[in-house]
Amino acid sequence: MGINKYPHLFQPIVLGNRIFRNRIFASPTGYQNINGDGFLNEGAAAYYGRKAMGGVASVATFEGVVDGEFGKGGSGHICLDTPRIEMNLGRVSYGISQYGAVATLELQHCGMFANRDLAMFGGAGKGIAYGPVECEYGGRHIQGMTEEIIERTINKFIDAAVLAKRLGFGMVLIHAGHGWGLHQFLSPITNTRTDKWGGKDIENRCRMLIAIIDGIHKKCGKGFPVEVRISASECYEGGYGIENGIAIACQLEGHADLIHVSAGNHEVDEVFTITHPSMFQKDGCNVYLAEEIKKHVKTPVATIGALSDPELMEEIIATGKADVVELGRELMADPDFVNKIRTGNEDSVKTCMRCLSCFSSELTHGEPYCALNPESGRELEVKYAIPAPNVKKKVLIIGGGCAGMEAAITSVKRGHEVILCEKSSRLGGVLRCEENVDFKKKLEKYLNQQETIIGKMAIDVRLNTEVTPSYAKEVGADVIIAALGAKQLVPNIKGIDNKNVYGAIDAYKKTGELGESVVILGAGLVGVELGLHLRALGKKVTIVEMTDHMNDGGNFLHMSGVRVEVKKRGLEIKFETMAKEITENEVICQHDGNEVKFAADSVIYAVGMVPLTDELMKLYDCANEFYPIGDCVLPSNITNATTTAYMTGMNLGRC
Ligand SMILES: Cc1cc2nc3c(=O)[nH]c(=O)nc-3n(C[C@H](O)[C@H](O)[C@H](O)COP(=O)(O)O)c2cc1C
Ligand code: SF4
Fold it and tell me: 104: phi > 0 → left, psi -120 to 50 → alpha, else beta; which?
């Protein structure tokens, strides 16, 4: 018996001739903040390096496109054949390997999805795209790859791997999953060629991928490890299943050094949240695929998806379901995950709640901002933050929700004296109303964790304390951080004051009082998530929404998961429907010029939040410095609350 609590997770593994210090790898996650010349900004090396610093054995990068002309998906892609890219990439590899992790460059070709911007941004095909066969797809003409283009593509992958090795990367990861170029060749659905590169024969469909791997080994040496990411199943009706995944894995035997078993195809909306499991999926929901593949090959196998629980990861390796666990989002929520579990500090691990805010922000801002870890995507700013100030300030924080708690923790870490006032009897704020929601358990864990951290810090916590201007002045703080939050907007509808009407926050707390049929006004995230929760409790729920869509609150990828769940749980949403009157047992609405009625024992309004402006205005002159943060400035999401709180705390005492 060794001394390590997770002996299997921390057993090194050798791939090719490289030793990896443990079995936990950072899966590829994009960083798309690139300049007009196609170069990454300086934050990239810091972002990937931070994961390496936290103890993982390998850190995989963004998708490096091997062929800038024919393989690039959109403007956020980094092309490895860009002239003078070497120094830019070299800084990333060094940023990782200086911390003892293997730097792994992901190699990508978009195939038939090349030269289009993401469909979710209304992107349309612009340039040439080559797929396995000539076809019309998504309103554009796709050309079939000729022998020359296939040869060119193979050579581009090999050249990219040679470049990677030269720049200090210790492994390359070939992306042959999720619907991208090589996946298109592996799939019997998209690869209907009739020559040696495709068709019914799996050997033909894998020929290009195998030629790439063998070519890399030939040029870079047998010992240079090649990891191959595949979708073991496309996970949708009409897509290929695990049999094709097994067949691909068998072809990779003796060629690839690590088979990285992922799932899905990004072209199918419902599957996005299987590839990137949403908060509605169970932990380790895709492990079964790796387990199945592993029965058929001797090559080491990696599993990926919704892995945050160290006990589960240890069990996966110990029972031989996989040889390596790969973590995507968990390392954004907590890049120190590995070192924390290794040193017995599991309690302090921030567990990713799979809200996908990071991915949404990566696609809109180029950097993955995490709701729970405000340092994610800002590693460079953190690295060069001003030293803890000499001036110690007395800080009064008003409001103990997400923003107030984060501001308190950061301010104390920076050496300030903090008084945290919360008007209710408990820290956690408005989000505490969701603590019995099945898909919000990780949020609850986070709130409890922040509360515990605060309890252990030298913070003067004053619960049941409503801060009035005179109270604030009496405290005599140098700084007030106002994290007051927001209140629910009450719609001006006849009957809104009836006994059977609740605000969404109240409704969460009083589900026992609600009748069997419930109408929710508003299909924003609050209304829809509440609807899903009530469906799980067996209520008949109808949402009426004025517009023609659900409002995603800026997190459009979380909405993908929500949409799947709306279907699954049978949640009814009536769009372009305006509530006019609430009676004792129905909601009378207007739709398309006609009156429509919905039976309702209970009615809940979820039509938005308004900042507590009046309350805020009373406090601004109660201390020398005054910083309003979070929802009391602009009702938004957790990411916004924790980020503004963290930044405010970090910068106190600058002057
Ligand atoms: C912000 C973000 C960016 C990602 N970028 C990439 C990428 O560039 N290449 C890739 O192959 N997968 C990418 N992924 C997918 C992850 O590698 C991983 O497969 C997925 O997130 C599921 O793992 P997880 O549940 O541990 O996050 C990304 C995921 C996220 C959340
Ligand atoms: S933003 Fe959400 S999904 Fe992304 S890492 Fe943070 S908690 Fe996880």
Answer: beta
Q: Do residues 494 and 516 lie in contact, with contact meaning Cβ atoms separated by under 8 Å?
A: no
Residues 29, 99: Cα–Cα separation, whole Å: 18
User: Which atom in ligand 1 lies closest to the alpha carbon of residue 61?
Assistant: 8
Q: Which residues line ligand 2 (CB under 6 A)?
A: 329, 332-333, 352-358, 370-372
Q: What is the value of ipTM here, to two decimals?
A: 0.99
Mutation pick for ligand 2 pocket among 332, 558, 559 (CB with most ligand atoms within 8 Å): 332
My answer on whether 155 and 245 are in the same domain is yes
Last residue of a domain, one of 333, 358, 382: 382
260 lies in the same domain as 354: yes
CATH code: domain of residue 557:
3.50.50.60
477 within domain boundaries = yes
Q: Give the distance (Å) from ligand 1 centre to CA of residue 359.
A: 8
Tell me: the pLDDT tens digits for 267-308? 898 899 999 999 999 999 999 999 999 999 999 999 999 999
Backbone phi and psi for residue 303, each to the nearest 5 degrees, phi listed first: -115, 155
Does residue 612 lie in a domain region?
no
Cβ–ligand 1 distance for 403 under 6 Å, the answer: no
Give strand ranges (E) for 209-253. 226-231
Taking only the tens place, the pLDDT of each residue in 167-176 is 999 999 999 9
Q: How far is the CA of 438 from the centre of ligand 1 (A)?
A: 24
Q: Which residues pair with 325 in a beta bridge?
A: 24, 303
5 located within any domain: no
Give the residue numbers spanning the domain of 443: 389-488+622-651
Is 614 within the bounds of a domain? no
